[in-house]
Amino acid sequence: MKNDIWEKIQQIRSSRKKAVLCIVVQARGSTPRKEGAKLLVTEDGEFVGTVGGGNLEYQVIEQARELLKGGGPQLISFNLKNDLQMACGGQVSVYMEPILPQYQLIIFGGGHVGQALARFAREFDFDIVVVDPRKEVLNSWKLKENVKFVQDGYLKAIENLKLDTRTFVCSMTYGHEYDLQIAARCLKEDLAYLGVLASRNKARKFAKALVEEYGYTEDRVAEIDMPMGLEMECETPDEIAISILGKLIDVKNKLAKND
Question: How many domains does the chain have?
């Protein structure tokens, strides 16, 4: 059963879903399970393992469902007789930890800056996806490990990717029209971050088009990081990628405080 839980956690994280891991960390007196008993509650309503059954497990599951809506780790304690009217009569403490998907970084455009960004971002706990329709560009990548490649049209790829509040999107394609289309499509989603590689002139044109042609409000368009990255003097692809990564780390760490 223990192995089933860890395998299920890996499956959940790879599918970008949520769960709560519940562990009995203290058991005194007569209790249905002892320290180390585990229960995994998924957002799909699936349960793996058990912390003892009965009203104890019911209360733990209900608390786990609340945690799935948001919140950090919790420790809950029960007197089985007084709190839950269970015949056991012991005391149990259960530690509950949300299992969240890893932050996902989707890079639209497999050129020099995209390659540099992926290379650096691997060291900062991002699941990296690179989207580019050009086979020869993706084949030119020296970096292959821990990167998922999607060779497809940019907008088509978006429909097949799972975009969520833990997804970072960086658009840096070979055509301005593609960057605009990607930005317009991704603004429909609730993302952790959306950035476009752009000059200030390109950013102004994009902002105007997103309002006048796509109907977004100026406030919504202002949420795009455009020009993308930290304000610093950059020339090489590596330098540009570092400025972008700095912004991604800043956003990610601020979000992590609310996990």
Answer: 2
